[in-house]
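Session log. Operator J.P. requested a structure for one protein chain; no other inputs attached. Running the standard single-chain path with token output.
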Amino acid sequence: MAAELKDVTNSRDRILGEVEQAVIGKNTLLEHIIAAILVPGGHLLIEDFPGLAKTLIAKSFAKVLGLNFKRIQFTPDLLPGDITGGYIYNHKEDRFELRQGPLFANILLADEINRASPKTQSALLEAMQEYQVTIEGETLQLPSPFIVIATQNPIEYEGTFPLPEAQLDRFLLKLAVGYPTQEEEQTILKNRRQRQEDEFDLAAVTDAKQLLEIRETIEKVHVDVAIEAYIVELVAQTRRQHKIAVGVSPRGSLALLKLSRVWAALQGRDYVLPDDVKQFYKPALRHRLVLEPNLWMHTGAADELLDIIMAKVSVPVA
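Structure written below.
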């Protein structure tokens, strides 16, 4: 039985209330992550400096959502079999047994994903898109929901393998955590002193079954034809910008559609407004653009170009 719309907002409030005990001062970021988790295929790419709680965010959401969590530290010597698992010979029983790799989890943290070789990165593609892995010719389904949260360090490029466009396109959102304010950082210190330990005592407020029911409810959120045309025009404009070598594919349009429906439901509405689309225009599309070479070293160039496009496209009247 699908959840009611009020259950969506209630779940959001309970999830935020728990996660914000561990992650201080990042309300918008956390709401964007909740939105992604409520979208099938809501994989996240978080690119930011070390020490900004990327791992803590992933672990906190897994605990609060009542989901199974695994972490992989990506390194250049990591092999595809290290993440998918494989068949191991059992001498005692004289047969091969499947030993599942860390891919078999609800939430997978792919830490420093760009440090692994392209061969290992590609092992994630089938899992992220098809929710399955193939081992020795046998296709195995992954748990549902299955969400990859990948991290990258934007300042260390030595010994890294940049993600190909095909894999970047599989991520629903590209987000940054950002530094806390001084007041927020002082709160972090005070909470640690009062807690007297590094770990956080977070309670699970939902489970996999409830999340899947919420996803069913979100599928009923109405999207007007004018809103669909608005999404298509925003995406089409990325293919006409002379500073963008390759624009956004239809997968980007679908990402905006799904995210805007989730955001409307999280606000308690059963219909989408243009502001719901604007909320995710940059985080859903920035990593899908291939810029002209002279802009590759310009930090924030993708966001600037998307702002220009946003200003040019007429907003439909709701």
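Operator note: Residues 5-211 form a domain with the Rossmann fold fold (CATH 3.40.50.300).
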